Amino acid sequence: MLLVEAGKATGGSTALSGGVFYAAGTSLQREAGIEGDTPDAVFQYYMTLNQYKLEASLVRKLCDDSPAAFEWLRSIGVEFRVEDLYMSGVDKVRRGHRAAGGGLAIAEGLEGSFAGRSVDIALDTRVEKLLVDPDGVKGIMVDGQPITAGATIIATGGFGANPAMLADIYPDAARHGDLHWYIGANTCQGDGIAMARAAGGQLSTPNRGLLLLTPGFAKDLESYLPGWLVMVNGLGRRFVDETIEYSVLAAILNEQKDHTAFGIFDETARLSSRTTSYRPAPNWTADRLEDFISAGTLAKADSIPELANHLGIPADTLQTSVARNNANAETGMDRDFFKPSNFLRKIYTPPFYAARIRAAIICWTGTGLRIDTDARVLDAADRPIPGLYAAGETTGGMFGECYASGGASIGNAVVFGLTAGRHATGANS
Ligand SMILES: Cc1cc2nc3c(=O)[nH]c(=O)nc-3n(C[C@H](O)[C@H](O)[C@H](O)COP(=O)(O)OP(=O)(O)OC[C@H]3O[C@@H](n4cnc5c(N)ncnc54)[C@H](O)[C@@H]3O)c2cc1C
Q1: Which three-class secondary structure string do you get for 294-362?
Q2: Is there a single domain that holds both residue 284 and residue 337?
Q3: What is the band of 283 on the pLDDT scale with cuts at 50, 70, 90?
């Protein structure tokens, strides 16, 4: 077996990731005293969260096979601890299994599992295209040379590092031009998607992936904005509990006027702003915020109407929204969006500030090759292309507008990676 890797080391985005694996019915859940959670419950959760606009057969496979894939990861030495099991979705069950050592530990565990097997690894080697004949895919082309194989598995990850492909098949991610940036591996340029499409492979529903919100202060990964921030849309209205999970925030923000929100706060908030270990946001400190005023990425005004005029949003509505927020903060009850009371702050003491918030951090991409439940790549007529399999972020169909949970993407890579491997080697036949 030959593994060809474009980077100088294996690991890709997996090695950079948080290493969370989403699953129900695992040994770790039982160790934590969580009984009765099932793949069926996860299937219902995934499907209803995205209004059933997913490939149900793939989601079913992902949910059903995730517990066994998780046990397999444990069996190859990836460590998971009860204290790292948490609620990573917008559901209410602890299903996010975070590997001790993060994604790097998973990547190392996977490479370690090759020990004793006949696997050659070619690093720093980029596959350019597939070898195709009328009977299907017969291998790959590397450095202009053909390498033949009975089966080829594409596991080249996503395409977040390819601006042209983002503009083409993930327009939500490309909409804000230079503001957007990708946190994954720079070798993840969608090569596998391009190669398989050139060989007749079909693309899943476009415009899928996970975007995080950013004020555009700096290209630092801050998965969460401060909970005390009050966001209004271009109409001057609040539209969401600002503290809800990142997995659904981007989809809600992108429904707003100009796909933009304005994070409003006052001088008291700026002066007391601290980063926390719970949800680190190192750019949201009093001094850093001063820097962003000078840099022009944070607006400042002496009154709310002046701030509204500066932002180009209706001053009257913004004043109403601020007054309503202040009444909520005073009573300790958000009567509009039910944000937890510990995050409620008045916007009262001038000067007032506003950051333009957009969904522009690309965490991973969710559009890719259409596969069947055996991980075979499908052609335009929904037929498997002989000899061609795909797994992980290079595939699509399992994820909708709302990312169900932290851990679903690694779950997808491991479940369908194992499936592709078994079918490609004939272990399942
Ligand atoms: C910072 C960060 C945190 C994340 N946290 C989580 C998390 O906690 N849980 C979760 O579920 N998801 C998370 N994700 C997403 C998740 O990590 C990825 O979706 C998943 O790991 C993708 O796995 P993969 O095997 O498909 O691709 P990758 O791990 O990216 O591997 C693809 C490999 O293919 C190689 N490659 C690309 N093109 C070629 C080519 N032409 N020839 C040869 N090799 C090529 C790349 O170099 C790379 O090594 C996170 C992502 C990031 C960036």
Answers
A1: HHCCEEEECCHHHHHHHHCCCHHHHHHHHHHHHHHHHHCCCCCCCCCHHHCCCCCCCCEEEEEEEEEEE
A2: yes
A3: confident
Residue where a domain stops, chosen among 320, 342, 361 = 361
82: left (phi over 0), alpha (psi -120 to 50) or beta: alpha
CB atoms within 10 A of CB 369: 28
User: Ligand 1 test: best mutation among 2, 4, 8, 17, most atoms within 8 Å of CB?
Assistant: 17
Report the C-alpha gap between 128 and 118 in whole angstroms.
Answer: 24
Q: What is the pLDDT of residues 305-341, one digit of tens each?
A: 999 999 999 999 999 999 999 999 999 999 999 999 9
Q: Which residues pair with 140 in a beta bridge?
A: 130, 147
pLDDT at 429: 45
Residues 67 and 163 in one domain: yes
Cis before 282 (ω within 30): no
Same domain, 259 and 300: yes
Give tens-digit pLDDT for 368-412.
Answer: 999 999 999 999 999 999 999 999 999 999 999 888 888 899 999
Residue reference for tokens 């000067």: 351
Q: Given 330, 361, 392, which residue is the final one in a domain?
A: 361
Instruction: Output the CA torsion sign for 38, 43, 44, 48.
Output: positive
Residue 382 pLDDT: 98
DSSP letter, residue 383: P
Pocket of ligand 1 (CB under 6 A): 4-7, 10-14, 16-20, 103, 126-127, 155-157, 183-185, 187-188, 191, 363-364, 392-394, 406-410, 413
Which residue in this structure is represented by tokens 């996860």?
A: 42
- Average pLDDT over every residue of 262-285: 84
Give the domain CATH number at 92. Answer: 3.50.50.60
Mean pLDDT, the chain, whole residue set = 95
Give the bridge partners for 359, in sequence order. 213
